[in-house]
Design a protein that fits this description.
Radius of gyration: 21 Å
Helix content: 10-25%
Strand content: over 45%
Shape: globular
Strand order of the largest sheet: 1-2-3-4-5-6-7-8-9-10
Number of strands: 10
């Protein structure tokens, strides 16, 4: 056997053997901080309303599916919001920076938006998130509050402002769906 191939084979075996131990250690270290987001895990359905100045409110049907990700170091979610005239799709990733202990909510939408919200927990059942940016010379800010009412219900409210003036409000209630067996 080629000496280089024999060396690579041993290195590959070592890497494979060390891999599960490294994942387990990372999972153990990351889980306490990431566990704050675990109440999101599950399948949620409900209704919401999008209100923008000068437009009629848009009532939407919501479907939100969340699961643990990255060896339980994060929560990954998919949102679908629909009505007869519009459809919103959003992919979310919730996690915590292990050094700063800052919570993050990364959101990407089918409208081309990409936001890194900074998250803080107000209490055991209330999460607040903030994202600020500049757009067309305006100072934009999005503030979101999610409140868990027990294990089966959550309410949310997102307010977007432009130069301090309300530009859009999206809020609603979701109920956790029973798990099917």
């Amino acid at each position: 056997m080629n000496p280089v191939r024999r060396w690579l084979s041993a290195l590959t075996l070592l890497a494979c053997a060390a891999g599960p131990a490294a994942v387990s250690a990372a999972d153990t270290a990351a889980a306490p901080e990431a566990a704050r987001f675990f109440p999101l895990v599950g399948h949620w359905k409900g209704h919401g309303e999008l209100v923008q100045p000068g437009q009629a409110p848009a009532r939407m049907t919501l479907d939100y599916r969340c699961r643990k990700a990255a060896a339980s170091s994060a929560v990954s979610c998919e949102l679908k919001a629909r009505n007869g005239t519009m459809s919103i799709a959003e992919s979310d990733l919730f996690g915590v920076d292990p050094v700063s202990r800052q919570g993050h909510w990364y959101a990407v939408t089918n409208q081309g938006e990409s936001h890194d919200h900074l998250v803080e927990w107000i209490d055991a059942g209330t999460m607040k998130a903030r994202y600020a940016w500049a757009q067309d010379g305006a100072k934009m800010e999005e503030n979101i509050a999610i409140r868990f009412d027990g294990a089966r219900s959550m309410n949310f409210r997102s307010v977007v402002t432009a130069n301090g003036n309300e530009a859009a409000v999206f809020g609603g209630t979701l109920r956790r769906q029973a798990r099917t067996r």
